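Suppose a colleague, Dr. K., hands you the sequence of a protein chain of 743 amino acids and asks what its three-dimensional shape might be. Before reaching for any lab equipment, you can write down a predicted structure in C-alpha cell form. Begin with the sequence itself:
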Amino acid sequence: MKKNTLFFGVLAVSLLVFFGPIFLAGKGFYYGDYKQQFYPWASYLYQSIHHFSLPLWAPEIGCGFPLLAEGQIGVLHPFQLLLFTLLPFATAYSFAFIFYFILSGFFTYRLSRQFEMSAEGATIAAIVFLFSSAYAGMVFGLASLRTLATFPMCLVAVGGMFKAPKSIRPVIWLAFSLGVTFLGGYFPMMPYVFLGCGLYFFYGLKMSPSGSGLRLTMHFLLALLLSAALAAAQLLPTAELAGFSSRAGASLDFALQKSLNPLSFATLLWPAFGAFLGFDFYAGIFPLCLAVFALVAWRKDRRVFFFAVWSIVFAALALGRYNPLYVLVLKITHLYFLRTPSKALIFVSFSLSMLAGIGYDRWISSKEPGAFKRVATQVFLWALVPFLTANAAARFFKPQILQWGEAYVRSQVVGKYGHSYSLETYLARLPDTLTQIHDRTSLLHPHILMTFGVWAACLLFIFSIKFFVSRKRILFFGVMTLILADLFFYTYLSSGFKGNAADPETVAVDSIVSKISSDPRLSRTYVYVPDPVSGAPHWLPNTNLMFGYSSIGLYSPLAVDAYREYLKPLGGVDNASGFYPTSKKALAENKALLNMLNVRYVISKQPLEEISYLSLLRASEHEDFLYENQGFFKRALIMAPQGSSASGEATLEDYSPTHVRVQTKTNGNALLFLSDLDYPGWKAFLDGKPTPIYKMAGIFRSVPVPAGDHQVQFFYAPFSFFAGAVISVIVLLGCGVCLVLKK
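The predicted structure, expressed as C-alpha cells, is then:
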C-alpha cells in the first residue's frame, strides 16, 4: 500500500497540472463536439434522470430521434448515472472527466503491476497513457473517454482469471468490466477492446501452467458472451438504429475513411507535423526513448515481446487503406460499418506507455549506465531525418507538393464518402495546407522550438544523472517532471485539453436562444450551413437540447439515413461526415419543405435578405441572424386523401417525448399528419383502439381518421430496448447469484 501512495500522489499532481488551468480558470469542455454533441446530450440526460425517466426518444432534434439508441449519450453507463444522480449537473459534467482519468489511471497502474513493473515504472506507464495527445491518449471525446476508461480494468480482469483458473468470480468480473465498456457508448472502440483482451488472454495462456488452457478458454468466451448480454439493453436499440443509418449500407470507402497515413508516425517525434498530416500521435520524447530502450531487450523479456507484437498489430489496423491485408479482410468479410481505422492508434499508445514503464525499470537496474544514453542519442539522430526531410521538401518542392495534393484530392477525396463538397472547394484549401507545412517545419515555429527544447532537456538529464541507489527517487521525480512538462506544453499548444476547453459563455443563453425558447407555439428551427468556408452559426443542431426548443437538424453518426436524404436540399443533418452542401437558392426554393417541417425560425451566419418569405427578427452577440418563416404549418395537420375534399382541424392536447395525443375534427375521411419521424416502437390508437401508422413522404407519421370528432394517441415503447433490458436484468441477477454462491 505504501508503494501505491507514490502513484496516487503523482496522479493527483498530474490531474492538477492538466485540469487545474481549465477548471480553476472557470473553463470546461464546451467546444467542438463537446458543445454540439456531448454537453447537450449530457444536459438532456441529466434532466431526464431527475424527472425519473430515460431519454428513449428526443422530439427536439431531427423531428424526433431515439436518443438512448445512439449510444454515445451513455444513458445506461453506471458511473455516469451515479454522478448525474448525486451531483448538480455542472459539477457532475466537469468532474466526470477527472473521475474517468482516475479510473483509467488506477487500473493501468494495477495492470502494470501485474506485469511485474516497479511502482515507479507502473506510475510512468499510467501517466503517459492518460496524458498523451488526443489520438494517443484519453481526450478524444466524452464517449470514447467513458469507453477507454474501463479498458485497463478489462485487462486487469483478464489477468485475474489466471490467478484463479477454477473460480467463476474472475469471469463475472471480466464480464462486468466489458459490459460497462460497452455501455460507455463508443462502439467503434469495442472491436479493439476485444482484440486487446484476446491478445492479453493468449499471452496469459502462454505464461500459465499447462493443463488449465481449455477451462480458461471456455471461461474467457463465457465472459465475452455475458458482457454482451449485460449490455443488451443498449446494444439491441443501437443495432436497430444502425440498421436505419448510413452504416447499414456502408461501402469500402466508408470503412477506410480516416485511415492513418504512414507518414503520421513522424508525429511520435515531431507533434507539430500533425497539423498537416491529420493526426497527432504523441506520447512524449522521454517515454519514447524509454520504450525504445525496452525494445532493445525484446528477446530477453517476454513482456517486451508481447507489447511489441501488440504495437505491430494495432498499428497495422490503424493504417487502414494503406495496409493491403486490412483492405483484403474487409472485402472478404464486408464489415464496412466501422470506419476510422486510425482509432487503433490509441491502443498503440497504450503499448508504448507500458513499454515506457518497462524501459524505466530496465534503465534504473541496468549494469551499463551508458546503454540508455546511446539509445536516446540514436533516437534523436533518427528523429532528425523526418524533420530535415520535411523541412527541405517544404522549401524546395512546393510545386510538386501542390501537384501531388491536387492529384490526391481528385483520386481520394472528391466523390468519396464523407466528402460532399465540390472539387473547387477542396482545391481552394491546398494553398493553406502548403502554408501549414512550411510553417510547421520551420525551426522558428514555436512547436518545433519547443520540441528541440524538450530533446535538449531530456538528453541533458540523461547524460548528467549518475546511478546510485540513494538517488533513485530523485531520478524518478526528475523523469516524471520532464514527462509532465512535455505532455502539458504540447497538449496546451495543440489538441486535447486546450483545444476543447472554453468559457461557460460558449453554452450560455444569448438573444437568439432567448427569443426561440420563449415562443409559446410548438415550432421548429432550421440552421442554415451552406459550406465550410462561409462558416457556421454558433448554435448548430443538438445544441438546442440545452434550451428546450426543437430543431429539424441533427448531429449523430447514426442519423436515420432516409431522413437525412429527405432534408438533402437544405442540409441540416450531419451524420459525422458533414452536412450536405446547400445554398440560398435551395433555401428560397424549399419554403414548402420548411412549412411541412413546422419550421418557424431560421438561424444563419450570413444575411438572407434575398429570401422573400423570411423576415429578420434580430442579430445575436455571436453575429448570427435569426429569421422568421411566418407561413409555417402546425406540427399536426389534417390532410385530404387524394381525390377527396375533406377538411378539418387537428389539436395537439399532449406532446411529450413518448406520448402524443391529438384531437381531430373532420367533415370526411381524412389523414392526420404528424411531422415527427416514424420509427419502430411507435404505436397509434384511434379512440383507444390500435390503428396502423402509415409513412408520409417515406419518413413521417400519418393515421387515417374518419369523419367527426376523434382522439388519436401515439405511444413509444421500443421492443428492442425492453427486450434488451429483460436480458440485461436476468443476466445481472444471475451473475449476482453466482457471486454469492460460488467461490
